[in-house]
Amino acid sequence: MKTQCDCCGDCCRNGGPPLHVEDIELVRSGSLAVDDLVTIRRGELVLAPLAADPSPAQTNWLKIQGAEGEWRCRFLDALSNSCTIYEHRPVSCRALRCWDTGEILAMAGQGLLCLADLMESNDPLRPLVLLQEKSCPVPDMENIIRTMIVHTERVRILSDLTVMVESDLRIRAQAVREFNISVARELFYFGRPLFQLLLPLGIVMTQTPKGIDLQYRPR
Q1: pLDDT at residue 2 tops 70
Q2: Structural domain boundaries enclosing 33
Q3: Which residues on adjacent β-strands are paired with residue 33?
Q4: For an engineered disulfide with 112, which of 37, 61, 63, 181 has Cβ 3.0 to 4.6 Å away?
Q5: Are residues 133 and 210 in the same domain?
Q6: Mutual orientation of helices 183-190 and 126-135 as an angle, nearest 10°?
């Protein structure tokens, strides 16, 4: 029976870890930079530990960003399968034991750290974050999956989503224009763009001379 880690790196390749409230000191001390983090928005499809299929996130929370366009943890040394911040790794990494998943499963979804925990009340980007939450929340992904097969519903849904995607992109553009934030900092404040969250549903965005065009292209 397996009783210890064999350093295969699979857990790290499956995604950067979520942060819990116990990890706030890692950020405050600088062991983790905010530019290393991405906001997962409520309703976004995520893969829970050991789950076979993604499901909507029940709340907003932070996790470590991926690397090179993938979800694999950015602190994984792919050559040695080792953690480059091992002494300062998040609490969920400390709890993860692939041979005994009881502790990590008990932690799943509990006491998660979110953007509001790290954002000061006078943060100049706070109004734009609140505007995003109000004007373009993550839509009901499961309902979209169920109803997109009906053509009349599809036209309506794509029209509604287009308005939300445009609003999301405008807010991000304003943040970049007014505060010159990097892509990494944008992910921290606003999460991934809404059009990217829709890709797993088969909804693809293209830019046209007339503006944004969303098309349903199921895989």
Answers
A1: no
A2: 10-117
A3: none
A4: 61
A5: yes
A6: 60
* Same domain, yes or no: 106 and 16: yes
In a domain, 3, yes or no: no
Give the predicted TM-score (pTM) of the model.
Answer: 0.91
Rounded distance between C-alpha atoms, residue 60 and residue 147, angstroms: 25
Q: What does the pLDDT look like over 152-195, one tens digit per residue?
A: 889 999 999 999 999 999 999 999 999 999 999 999 999 999 99
Q: Which two tokens stand for residue 65?
A: 């960003």
Q: CA-CA distance, 90 to 85, in Å (whole number)? A: 9
CA 51 to chain centre: 17
Structure token digits, residue 180: 């010159």
End-to-end CA, the chain: 40
Distances (CA, A) of 48 to 21, 51, 52, 58, 161: 18, 5, 8, 11, 26
- Do 150 and 101 sit in the same domain of this protein? no
Tell me the three-class secondary structure of 28-77, residue by residue. Answer: HCCCCCHHHEEEECCCCEECCCCCCCCEECCCCEEEECCECCECCCCCEE
**Apex 67 CA angle, 11 and 134, nearest 5:** 100
